[in-house]
Give the backbone structure.
Amino acid sequence: MPSFNKIMMIGNLTRDPTSKTLPSNTTVTEFGIACNRKFKTAAGEEREDVCFVDCEAFGKLGDTIAKFCQKGKPLFVEGRLHYSSWQDQQGGKRSKISIVVEGFQFLGSRDQGEPATRGGGAVPQNREGSPFGDKPPEFTEQDCPF
């Protein structure tokens, strides 16, 4: 049976990206993303759940993220999940799941009022910045499935 490993996530960076060079001379940039979820309990109490995920971006993708992103900035990432396991100094088994970034999109604006900057090609776009060409398609209420 074939497998499928793809994740898309929007969140805020939990720390400034850090870059290092691997022995293969490839750079890897590591950062974390937090994604919030608000919900109501059965008793009607409003709660918030936060998911913290470590991310790794290699090469030019990582270099761009390290250059333009810092703690607190929103970012859309897409990639694949990667499972790592190791033994800690006390001999215990440790593991984690992280995202290996294969594409990203900057969210928000660079400065006050400037348009958002495109990142690693997460959404195909033309020169004008629209994924639909010169003008977006028009939809009617009959097109809406809900």
In short: The helical segments are 59-68.
